[in-house]
Prior knowledge:
Blueprint: E1 22-26, E2 36-40, H1 52-61, E3 86-90, E4 93-96, E5 101-104, H2 119-129, H3 140-152, E6 158-162, H4 165-180, E7 184-188, H5 205-209, H6 220-223, E8 226-229, H7 234-243, E9 248-253, H8 269-279, E10 283-287, H9 299-304, E11 310-314, E12 324-328, H10 330-333, H11 352-365, H12 370-391, E13 397-401, E14 404-408, H13 417-420, H14 425-437, E15 440-441, E16 450-451, H15 458-472
Parallel strand pairs: 5-15, 7-8, 7-9, 9-10, 10-11
Antiparallel strand pairs: 1-2, 3-4, 4-5, 6-12, 11-12, 13-14, 14-16
Amino acid sequence: MAASISGVGVGVGLGLPCSTKLSKALPFSPSYGFRVKMTVSVEDKKKNYTLQKSEEAFNAAKNLMPGGVNSPVRAFKSVGGQPIVMDSVKGSHMWDIDGNEYIDYVGSWGPAIIGHADDEVLAALAETMKKGTSFGAPCLLENVLAEMVISAVPSIEMVRFVNSGTEACMGVLRLARAFTGREKLIKFEGCYHGHADPFLVKAGSGVATLGLPDSPGVPKAATFETLTAPFNDISTVENLFNSNKGELAAIILEPVVGNSGFIPPKPDFLEAIRYLTKENGALLIFDEVMTGFRLSYGGAQEYFGITPDLTTLGKIIGGGLPVGAYGGRRDIMEMVAPAGPMYQAGTLSGNPLAMTAGIQTLKRLTEPGTYEYLDKITRELVQGILDAGKKTGHAICGGYISGMFGFFFTEGPVHNFDDARKSDSAKFARFYRGMLEEGVYFAPSQFEAGFTSLAHSSEDIQKTIAAAEKVLSKI
């Protein structure tokens, strides 16, 4: 993998202490023949690992929701075994409805960079809720978060808040086409930009997890103008520009891929993309829904020193509440309604709860030593897992930047989605299920990045490494 990792000394330790007493009830309608009650105490922590209540809940859910979930990767299709129904989160840990405790490296798929259920964020939300949960009108909190985003992200001079990363990418593509008067788009294989029709072409992430090449229901006309190239392959991008002169509106990419596993750009790749877009009158869009405020306070564009024309954000800027945003150069953003003719709207956009959680989260990220700490613990984690894999005789490679990481069961290097698919996904599935039993929760797919947080302790990291070596020695 392109991201280098320096060696560190690691220790080992086993046992995951249960420091939180849970007493919760989860009622379900009698018409589905299902009701769960649970009481978990510290004394129960040594009990055998069981997912009986998760199984009962999930079986009931399959009668209520497609596949029993509201987002496909949660169904564990690529790793097998019983999907886990969670009950609560705090800091770096999660608890399921059976009372099992996990060290969490999913972080709600990225937002929980300061830790789950942070006390300061919860307190601020409680105060905001006293004034109401949604106004459907401007609120001062929108100004505050907008100013914080604009001051942090190099490319953003104006910003529009929306409710998800998918919505942000839908809006930014429409804007790029409106501004340039062109329709064609280049995206990269394995990069996921939400589930809007134009992006569901070689989209990685959940699509890859389910083994679907694309999605039924997407008309050919919706993807006809979407061109694809392998990530880190600049020659293919050059050829696409040469064969579509004057027709390309934009290139959109994850500057560090997180939806094919963790794949960083090769040296000079982003710089070359920036040069080609400028030379051909196309816009460069960084999808920083994952990397924004995670690789650095100014995102991947600050980390790599490459400024795009437009940027999409999500996850962290909502502090765990539904949010998205797109922003960029003022002359481009002034095309967005009502300032300009490019229409986009949203009922809950800029709602006070999401704005409050985002403001509190970004305040914490400005504290001294934040990103140095994320880098330290993530380096220790990844190096420890790679060392454990090699010690136990497995082909393994991996990398990290700040609080984002990934590893593959292949010798590597992994530079694109085709390389990622060479990973031993069956081995990953066995590893994943083994780690659950040891109290460690990774993303339930080989094709997803992992995330650390400020709440992860050195003890969390060492216990994870010890668990990894134990599991890897058995599979």
